[in-house]
Amino acid sequence: MIDVTGQISAVERRIGDRTLPAGHARVLTIAQTYDAPVADVFDACTNPERIPRWFLPVSGDLSFGGRYQLEGNAGGTVERCDPPHGFAATWEFGGEVSWIEVRLREAGPGRTRFELEHVAHVDDQRWAEYGPGAVGIGWDLALVGLASHFAIDGTGVDPAAAADWMASPEGLRFVTESSRSWTTASIEAGTPTEQAQTAGTRVTAFYTGAPTP
């Protein structure tokens, strides 16, 4: 059983901006501390046998310079690998390229702070329509998967059970609370409140299947 309120509260979310050679980019950062040593968290995030236990099946070469592909999702190139402190890769999906970086550091004996940064070119119109939740909710779901992975001693999260949970009242509440949290982060980053709330409502409807307002 997932503690929805506890998991939502355990995650830090930030929105920022960055100027890249190709122009303005949005920066989404999500972080959580896990009761596992740094080396174990790094292995969970880079070992192709463990990644499907909490995220998605992955194929390809996960070493520096290699190409990877997540089943039904993004693929890309591993651009940096610094075991056990983190890695960086392109995130290629739907004909668009963005970038992810995972940073790990010790947060006390046997504990690790996991921080993921996702940098993407998002035009103002699309940002106004969906805001950070379009990507952020997906990363929240990944982090709850990783939390469950460590909570059950590294054994796999059953895909069928995960799908059932997503469609359950608790799963829908998790998505809704995640969306609200990203809306708050967007407002704190300077997005006008009404715009952020409208985008949050729209992306919640997208993920939950509720009628779009």
Automatic annotation (TrEMBL):
<comment type="similarity">
    <text>Belongs to the AHA1 family.</text>
</comment>
<dbReference type="Pfam" id="PF08327">
    <property type="entry name" value="AHSA1"/>
</dbReference>
<dbReference type="InterPro" id="IPR023393">
    <property type="entry name" value="START-like_dom_sf"/>
</dbReference>
<dbReference type="InterPro" id="IPR013538">
    <property type="entry name" value="ASHA1/2-like_C"/>
</dbReference>
<feature type="domain" description="Activator of Hsp90 ATPase homologue 1/2-like C-terminal">
    <location>
        <begin position="35"/>
        <end position="150"/>
    </location>
</feature>
<protein>
    <submittedName>
        <fullName>Polyketide cyclase</fullName>
    </submittedName>
</protein>
